[in-house]
Design goal:
Layout: E1 5-7, H1 11-18, H2 22-41, E2 49-52, H3 54-62, H4 71-86, E3 89-90, E4 96-97, E5 99-105, E6 115-119, H5 123-133, H6 136-154, H7 159-172, H8 183-201, H9 209-223, H10 227-236, E7 244-250, E8 261-266, E9 278-283, H11 289-292, E10 298-299, H12 301-306, H13 308-325, E11 329-336, E12 339-347, H14 352-364, H15 370-376, H16 379-384, E13 389-390, H17 392-400, E14 404-407, E15 409-412, E16 415-421, H18 424-434, E17 438-442, H19 450-455, E18 458-461, H20 469-476, E19 481-483, E20 488-491, E21 496-499, E22 502-505, E23 509-513, E24 518-521, E25 526-527, H21 534-546, E26 550-554, H22 558-566, E27 572-576, H23 586-595, H24 599-623, E28 628-632, H25 645-660, H26 665-688, H27 700-705, H28 707-726, E29 732-740, H29 743-764, E30 771-776, H30 779-783, H31 785-788, E31 794-797, H32 799-807, H33 811-814, H34 818-824, H35 838-855, E32 860-863, H36 871-880, E33 884-887, H37 892-914
Parallel strand pairs: 3-4, 16-17, 17-18, 18-19, 26-27, 26-33, 27-28, 28-29, 29-30, 30-31, 31-32, 32-33
Antiparallel strand pairs: 1-2, 2-7, 5-6, 5-7, 8-9, 8-11, 9-10, 11-12, 13-25, 14-24, 15-19, 16-23, 20-21, 21-22, 23-24
Helix pairs in contact: 1-2, 5-6, 6-8, 7-8, 14-15, 14-21, 15-21, 21-37, 22-24, 23-24, 24-28, 25-26, 28-29, 36-37
The structure holds phosphoenolpyruvate and magnesium ion.
């Protein structure tokens, strides 16, 4: 029979069942339960307790909210063991044991599910506790917390109803803090809370501790499917079928006087990654007070002064936990009358910057290997370094003109601008329905606000610290955030914020600098930062040692190539040579070439374009000294270089109207001339019109049709190559012919172009290393790459077109149209233009590479479609044995890391295939 409940010290029994694989333990006990059990095993002071498994939760939910058979009996058994250990009894009048009921899923979902504290309190136990402890204030504060949490979590009563009572009583008694209310006040509040409970839950508050525990356990199970938990899982990509465990833990109290405290800490700085413990705590407080941001917390450093002994014990435990788990820990602790208890430890959430620094420093400290460091940083986290930041000039100007509104804690970096929305629903509505960029501004955030936070560009709160809910969530989702802006007052009635004497209404634009912790009025301009972060540089260097794939960049201009090179690109995988023809001076020449009736006119236009192209390519060769540069010859259909037919018809109509009213003969002559030119353009545009231009006269077909055009490009490439060689650089041009479908078309085109290349080199008296090759963008080319390889000496997968031609869907139209519907309906899991479709496009690539290298061993195979910068597609390219991926310069760092991940994952798979029992090898995995 299944076992549903495990005591914290029963880790051994669990491992007998699931093996010594910590991930399997976590799946069963949830992260919190597994870590509590692990802490108990290594001798960390953990209050006695037990965990009801995630399997029990799933069984409960599946059975329509009924505990699985035998579960409750096991709970009772575990409870007895806990009572024995504590020397107290649950529900006992003389020496009562109090419990907390805490949720805990496999993946941490901070604050998304429910917790009930102080279970076991009732009128009788309250009285006996007063006798035992002699502190009425403490007892009634604890009792009212139970009623409040039970009311909100189990019965769904609005929390404000309870909080309003506390606020009123504080006002009446003229005190500022909760801690200043005396026993009498809390006793009165407790009575009022019971009244609220009765009228809103239509029943009395349950005095029976066992009933309390049953209802609380059910509520925690149910909270797995609560709205905020579901929203969070959707956003974080956490599966919905994991379930939550319930941890039933003996209560320890941080609100037992001046020698008691409760707090949270990160063993390293979660924002910068600095190796220094940081945290917040409150003296004489309980549970959620610290994270809720309701009271101003103290910095952990003050605890050293206030309770030196407990502090040094805490530090030692925290440091040991980090060493034990070999990861930055996020811990929760309580000090009860000078005695330290650890309530929780888990891997700490962190910003991208912190993730990188922590991984690198832990590897340098010898805590983890370089390989682990590389694996611990995700490609998205590297991407974050390339996200916009505010221009320093813009920030200075804003400061100088008095637009720096306020400062707070810089808890999640990055720049965000948007309109102020003062609640989560409005933030979401404005962002989703009206497409507005929104900054969500709140006093503090609660788990219920997550949907607004996700919709917002950035988050601003007036309260809370580095470990507040707002900070944690913002960091996890990479949203810039500034919290604890105490100078800011939020007036929810008038829907405005006030800073000093400045009043800013909801809907006004502000800019948030999560990196520096500043808030500005208006919209500031942003820039993409240089990735000079020394830890990132080091990590990417390690990634380079592991990866097998080369990382090249798609760059048309020298400035792009320079950026790519500075980001670590090892070549140019795609220069789309037609892009230059769209520039101001060149477009008229290019159009002249299209319009030419006589070969001499065409040659004249091409001759005029040649020096421009030569300079374009020379610029690239100079930057990419001794690195390969793939120049793709003209690809798009010619009509793209002419004005649109509709536009021309309209212009002609306008000109003809103006002709009617023209006054002078000079005007008439000029207009007639213009009309003639436009009519010619229109006639040519119409003659070039195709029903399916993407399947029409483009790529190699165009090169065959107008060989003078591609010959000019090849002449420009080789003249530039000779010129730059003469300047003392090493030039490695690779000429790429697009859109081949049959080897014969490639042969025809390439023979002519290679002859032109030879001619130029002979003229110049210089020989350069060069290659001619083609793109694989059409299934037929992929299936016949063995034939193609007889002509081409390299191939590059143009997966944008290859996806288009394999699926037979237009890349220009589908992404904005039916493809969205396909994904919504689950017909396609992924957008194939974003992530390579492994089963179709990927399979064609596999065949193509195999055939290519069969015919020409060691043939250079790469990818230059957009997928070349996407991590999962990069992993596929690694599997296919490509030589390189080529992507936008901004994705180069991401690709370097993703390529390393692919290589390391492959290596692990190979090892585990050889050693199938690795999980049971005896070493405790982490
Ligand atoms: C491709 O098709 O993947 C490609 C790189 O070429 P383009 O996007 O220019 O068609
Ligand atoms: Mg293409």
């Amino acid at each position: 029979m299944k076992k549903w409940v495990y005591l914290f010290d029963e880790l051994g029994i669990i491992e007998d069942r699931v093996g010594r694989d910590f991930e399997s333990v976590k799946a069963l006990l949830g992260g919190k339960g597994a870590n509590l059990a692990e802490m108990a095993r290594i001798g960390v002071p953990v209050p006695p307790g037990f965990t009801v498994t995630t399997e029990a939760c799933n069984a409960f939910l599946a059975a329509g909210m009924v505990f699985p058979e035998g579960m409750w009996e096991e709970v009772q058994g575990a409870l007895k063991a806990v009572e024995k250990r504590c020397g107290k009894k649950f529900g006992d009048r003389d020496n009562p044991l109090l419990l907390s009921c805490r949720s805990g899923a496999r993946t941490s979902m901070p604050g998304m599910m429910d917790t009930v504290l102080n279970i076991g309190m009732n009128d009788a136990t309250a009285q006996s506790m007063i006798k035992l402890i002699g502190d009425e204030r403490f007892v009634f504060d604890a009792y009212r917390r139970l009623i409040q949490m039970f009311g909100t979590v189990v019965m769904g009563i609005a929390d404000d109803l309870f909080e309003d009572v506390i606020t009123r009583v504080k006002r009446e008694r003229n005190v500022l803090n909760d801690g200043d209310l005396d026993g009498g006040a809390w006793k009165g509040i407790t009575a009022e809370f019971k009244g609220i409970f009765r009228s809103h839950a239509s029943r009395h508050f349950p005095e029976d501790p066992v009933e309390q525990l049953i209802l609380a356990t059910e509520a925690v199970f149910r909270s797995w499917n609560g709205k905020r938990a579901v929203d969070y899982r959707n956003a974080a990509g956490i599966p919905h079928d994991l379930g939550t465990a319930v941890n039933v833990v003996t209560m320890v109290f941080g609100n037992m006087g001046a020698d008691s405290a409760t707090g949270v800490a990160l063993t390293r700085n979660g924002t910068t990654g600095e190796n220094r413990i940081e945290g917040d705590y409150l003296t004489n407080a309980q549970g959620e007070d610290v994270v809720a941001g309701i009271r101003m917390t103290n910095d952990l450093s003050e605890l050293e002064r206030e309770m030196p002994r407990a502090y040094s014990e805490f530090r030692e435990v925290a440091e040991n936990l980090e060493k034990h788990f070999r990861e930055m820990q996020d811990v929760e602790f309580t000090i009860e009358k000078g005695k330290l208890w650890m309530l929780q430890t888990r891997d700490g959430k962190r910003t991208a910057q912190a993730a990188v620094r922590i991984a690198v420093e832990m590897a340098r400290e010898g805590l983890i290997t370089r390989e682990e460091a590389v694996k611990r940083v995700s490609a998205e986290q590297v991407d974050f370094f390339l996200h916009p930041q505010f221009e320093s000039a813009a920030m200075k100007a804003a400061r100088d003109s008095g637009n720096l509104l306020a400062e707070g804690l810089n808890v999640s970096p990055g720049a965000a601008c948007g309109v102020i929305a003062l609640d989560a629903d409005l933030a979401e509505a404005w962002a989703t329905n009206e497409g507005k960029k929104v900054i969500m501004v709140r006093p503090e955030t609660k788990p219920d606000d997550v949907h607004g936070m996700l919709a917002a560009e950035g988050i601003l709160t007036s309260r809370g610290g580095r470990t507040s809910h707002a900070a944690l969530v913002a960091r996890q989702f990479g949203k810039p955030a500034v919290v604890g802006v105490s100078s800011m007052e939020i007036d929810m009635n008038l829907r405005r914020i006030k800073v000093g004497d400045r009043v800013i209404t909801e809907g006004s634009v502000i800019s948030l600098d999560g990196t520096g912790g500043e808030v500005y009025l208006g919209e500031l301009s942003t820039k993409v930062p240089d990735i000079k972060d020394p830890w990132l540089m080091e990590l990417l260097g390690w990634a380079d040692d592991f990866r097998k794939l080369g990382v090249w960049a798609n760059a048309d201009y020298p400035r792009d190539a320079e950026r790519a090179l500075s980001y670590g690109a090892e070549g140019i995988g795609l220069c789309r040579s037609e892009h230059m023809f769209f520039e101001a001076e060149r477009l008229p020449l290019f159009q002249k070439m299209i319009m030419a009736d006589l070969p001499s006119e065409q040659q004249e236009a091409l001759g005029a374009l040649l020096p421009f192209q030569r300079e374009d390519f020379a610029g690239l060769f100079r930057v990419m000294d001794d690195l390969p540069v793939i120049i793709r010859l003209i690809d798009p259909p010619l009509h793209e270089f002419l004005p649109s037919i509709v536009g021309l018809i309209k212009e002609l109509a306008d000109l003809k109207l103006r002709l009617k009213h023209a006054g002078t003969m000079g005007d008439i002559d000029a207009l007639l001339l213009e009309i003639k030119e436009k009519e010619n353009l229109l006639a040519r545009a119409e003659s070039l019109r195709e029903e399916n231009p993407m399947l029409g006269l483009r790529g190699v077909r165009l090169g065959i049709h107008i060989p003078e055009l591609t010959s000019m490009q090849v002449r420009a490439i080789f003249e530039a190559a000779c010129m730059v060689t003469r300047e003392g650089k090493k030039v490695r041009p690779e000429v790429m012919i697009p859109l081949t479908s049959h080897v014969n078309e490639l042969r025809v085109q390439q023979e002519r172009l290679e002859a032109e290349a030879q001619k130029v080199m002979a003229e110049q008296g210089i020989t350069v290393d060069y290659k001619f090759g083609t793109m694989i963008e059409i299934p037929r080319a992929a299936l016949t790459t063995d034939e193609i390889a007889e002509v081409a000496s390299f191939i590059s997968f143009g997966t944008n077109d290859l996806t288009q031609t394999t699926f037979g869907i237009s890349r220009d139209d589908a992404e904005a149209g039916f493809l969205i519907e396909y994904m919504e309906k689950g017909i396609l899991k992924e957008n194939p233009f974003a992530v390579i479709d492994a089963a179709g496009v990927g399979e064609l690539m596999r065949i193509s590479v195999e055939k290519a290298r069969g015919a020409r061993p060691g043939m250079e195979c790469g990818i230059c479609g957009e997928h070349g910068g996407e991590p999962r597609s990069i992993a596929l390219c690694h599997e296919l044995g490509l030589n390189y991926v080529s992507c936008s310069p901004f994705r180069v760092p991401v690709a370097r890391l993703a390529a390393a991940h692919a290589a390391l994952t492959r290596r692990e798979k190979a090892v585990s295939a050889r050693e199938p029992s690795l999980d049971h090898s005896g070493e405790r995995p982490n």
